[in-house]
TrEMBL record:
Region (Disordered): 1-28
Keyword Hydrolase: yes
Matching InterPro entries: Isochorismatase-like_dom (IPR000868), Isochorismatase-like_hydrls (IPR050272), Isochorismatase-like_sf (IPR036380)
Residue ranges annotated for the Isochorismatase-like domain, each copy included: 35-197
Name of this chain's protein: Cysteine hydrolase
Organism: Aquabacterium soli
Pfam families reported for this sequence: Isochorismatase (PF00857)
An MF annotation (GO) of this entry: hydrolase activity
UniProt KW keywords: Hydrolase
Family matches, as Gene3D superfamilies: Isochorismatase-like (3.40.50.850)
Keyword field contains Cytoplasm: no
């Protein structure tokens, strides 16, 4: 669409239709079965308030998340990292990971386990949702993704906000429960129950998920 056409839509109070993704590709190839893996807030230096109470739980789900990522990549399912920048507006995504690696201890271990590969995608988010004020929706459109596997922390905060935004945009969402964590067991149980019972999402653990048949997953 040219500038004149966009102006006509705006003057009429209409939202201009999206650009043809094929004419301005932001991704190298489409996602098989229209599926992508989204990893929320697992990287960085973990220097925010209450980080310590969440860090050990994030580290506990990292092996399952890493294993799911490997299976996704083996089946050409793209991996997208969405991470809070914690107000560090002069730091890019790679700088965020480097900070985590330099932090030592559990923080470095977490960044090592989930270290992004060269072909992975990433977005920095200023708020809880991975969609708010980020290019995530546009990236997913160019990847032709309609189904998200959402993993990360915290289940009842940034993960929940991201899931709600995804559902409002009509994405199918799967939340493998063994790849999610929040600050304590009670909150985790409540959050997973909310995802399953209220939002009616599939929370099947990642080890029981057949990545090869993701196209057959039925969003309830």
């Amino acid at each position: 669409m040219n500038a004149a056409e966009k102006t006509r839509h705006l003057a009429a109070g209409e939202t201009p239709p999206p650009n043809d993704a094929s004419k301005s590709p932001l991704a190298r190839q489409e996602a098989p079965a229209g599926t992508a893996l989204l990893v929320v807030d697992m990287l960085g230096a973990w220097s925010f308030p209450e980080a310590d109470s969440l860090l050990s739980r994030a580290l506990a789900i990292a092996p399952a998340t890493q294993a799911l990522k490997r299976r996704c990549k083996a089946n050409s399912v793209p991996v997208i990292y969405a991470n809070d920048n914690h107000g560090h507006w002069r730091t890019d995504f790679r700088g965020l990971v480097e900070q985590g690696l330099r932090s030592g201890g559990a923080r470095a271990r977490l960044n090592e386990l989930l270290f992004p590969d060269e072909e992975d995608y990433f977005v920095l988010k200023p708020k809880q949702s991975a969609f708010f004020a980020t290019p995530l929706d546009m990236l997913l459109s160019h990847l032709k993704v309609r189904r998200l596997l959402v993993t990360g922390v915290a289940t009842d905060q940034c993960v929940l906000a991201t899931v709600l935004d995804a559902r409002m945009r009509d994405y199918s969402v799967h939340c493998p429960s063994d790849c999610l964590a929040t600050h304590d067991d009670r909150r985790q149980a409540q959050a997973v129950r909310h995802l399953a019972d209220v939002l009616e999402l599939d929370v099947t653990p990642s080890h029981a998920l057949d990545v090869k048949t993701l196209g057959a997953i039925d969003q309830r």
